Amino acid sequence: MPLKKKPFLGMPAPLGYVPGLGRGATGFTTRSDIGPARDANDPVDDRHAPPGKRTVGDQMKKNQDDDDEDLNDTNYDEFNGYAGSLFSSGPYEKDDEEADAIYAALDKRMDERRKERRELREKEEIEKYRMERPKIQQQFSDLKRKLSEVSEEEWLSIPDVGDARNKRQRNPRYEKLTPVPDSFFAKHLQTGDNHTSVDPLQVQFGGLNTPFPGGLNTPYPGGMTPGAGELDMRKIGQARNTLMDMRLSQVSDSVSGQTVVDPKGYLTDLNSMIPTHGGDISDIKKARLLLKSVRETNPHHPPAWIASARLEEVTGKLQVARNLIMKGTEMCPKVRHTLNICSLSLSLSLTATFTVSQRHCSCDLLTCIQQIKFSISFTLRESLEALLQRAVAHCPKAEVLWLMGAKSKWLAGDVPAARSILALAFQANPNSEEIWLAAVKLESENNEYERARRLLAKARSSAATARVFMKSIKLEWVLGNIDAAQELCTEALRLYENFPKLWMMKGQIEEQSENMDLAREAYNQGLKKCPHSMPLWLLLSRLEERVGQLTRARAILEKSRLKNPQAPELWLESVRLEYRAGLKNISNTLMAKALQECPNSGVLWAEAVFLEARPQRKTKSVDALKKCEHDPHVLLAVAKLFWSERKITKAREWFLRTVKIEPDLGDAWAFFYKFELQHGTEEQQEEVKKRCENAEPRHGELWCAESKHILNWQKKIGEILVLVAAKLKNTF
């Protein structure tokens, strides 16, 4: 029976039909079913596709970007919407292009409206930024001119940039050498070994090359007997004993029998006493022989005796030095150098030496002055009056002799005797300005103001000098008689209009009375007569700054620098004026110009150290010391720098060095005393105060501001020191 043919076999499969789907099969499509794949550069079907979507590759890339689009809530902003475009996946048509063009035109128009304002604001911001943070090129613009002075050898000596890298690898650490102990030398001297180096093979193979005990490497070959060695330990011990004997003789008193050695601080004090000379014992012996030869060849040559005594003093043989002094005064009786020999610090025999020189020397002015100084220094009061009478008998016109005698009596508390000496001085020198002023000072210091007024009136009638008028004005000023002081000032200026201190006093009196216009007029008139007076320029500038006229003060200082070039005081005031006004950049620029104008000014270098930031101050101080090695202001700045870094020991050393080089600088004493108040003991504070009183400083910016103040005219040196130190602030 024939089978019936299924009716659907010849019919096309329905849409979506997958063969075998009922039994679990899945449909798949092969490359042969759909044809070859399209290339990335093939055009798309859309003939009006926008640029960037006209190829198959662009379309695929766009689809991938659309898949990566983030439409999360975190990417949504309340005012701006989503960060990306919601319609970026849509077709880009002509109306979209037209809308973009309209928006671009609007943006361009709005940008042109605010262009000038925006460019001006950007320019101001750039200028402000460059002023606050200048380029390296601008910072070194003033130094580029000096590059023309650099020679070819200096250019070639500049190291390469690579020299600063890998320094540790290129420069290995040096080998450390340890001194050989004395026991090592003693042991080998006994055994007779002269060769004490170590064999490199023993270091490399330590222990493999041990000497054979059979006699092949015997330590003592028969031909070598133990020698004495190259070092004599006995001589080394003798040298040490000699050196110790010299040290002990330097710190002890061998004449009076009373020792001055402090048992507790002996080892500490000994370090400062030992190296008073730089040579060894053999050099001292050679110098002693040479000086002996000079003395024997020319016994009447005073420097030979002085040098010989100095040598013996340095080596600690004080008695030998004293003997040489006495013999030198006998060999050179009529030469003034015998007085120089008296200045040696050998106090016990100085009295006898002074007696010899006093007997032989002629009584001229220099001899008398030195002898009086000697008597005062060693408190020889019994011989002072006789010596003074002898001096003024031979030199009655010498004002300094009368003044020294009067001061000696005044310091001793005998004011009537000082008055009598000055009265005799008036008879010998009736028109002497110095004697008149000394008498006025004596009366004013003892609160005899009416007598001082009468003396000044007589002095103005007999010796009407500018200084006499100045002292008269000062006396009335400090006593509160302002009207009398102004009248005297007007009278003095009619006679001495070229004396700048009179104009300064007139301006300061008006300034104290709050008459700023009259004070300004006085300073201006004084500058017309005395254009080279630095204090007048400074007073006028500070007056304008005090009343708030900063621009006028700046103009005054610029004018003063034109009239007085290379004046460090004027440059310093200009720098400080800008710094007080808060213009630190301008003050730094002015300081650079000032150092170019006055490269060897210590006050400018000292101020420049503290204008720098803290990390650069040390470098600046080194430059200052190179330029002004012995300037007291630079040394004081270095001491303050160590003080700010809390290096107490170094700061104290530099303070001592400063007051030793320039004991007349009151500012150094004030800072030193302030330093000891904070970091020293009471003994150290009293020592600084006592040394300051003995030095009697008269100069210093801060010191003069207090010592010359009207309210402090009767204060002593110690009181002024306390006042200045109290006003100092260590905020440097």
From TrEMBL:
- Where do the coiled-coil regions begin and end? 103-146
Q: What is a single Pfam family found in this protein's UniProt entry?
A: TPR_19
Q: What keywords is this UniProt entry annotated with?
A: Coiled coil, mRNA processing, mRNA splicing, Nucleus, Repeat
Q: Domain PRP1 splicing factor N-terminal, which positions?
A: 13-167
Where is the major localization of this protein? nucleus
Q: Where is the composition biased (Basic and acidic residues)?
A: 39-64
Cellular component, GO, one term: catalytic step 2 spliceosome
* Iron keyword on record: no
Q: Where is the composition biased (Acidic residues)?
A: 65-76
**Where are the membrane-spanning stretches?**
none
Task: Answer yes or no on keyword Nucleus.
Answer: yes
Q: Mind telling me which SUPFAM superfamilies this protein's record contains?
A: TPR-like
Signal peptide segment: none
Q: For the region Disordered, what residue ranges are annotated?
A: 1-77
Function summary: Involved in pre-mRNA splicing as component of the U4/U6-U5 tri-snRNP complex, one of the building blocks of the spliceosome. Enhances dihydrotestosterone-induced transactivation activity of AR, as well as dexamethasone-induced transactivation activity of NR3C1, but does not affect estrogen-induced transactivation.
What is the name attached to this protein's record? Pre-mRNA-processing factor 6
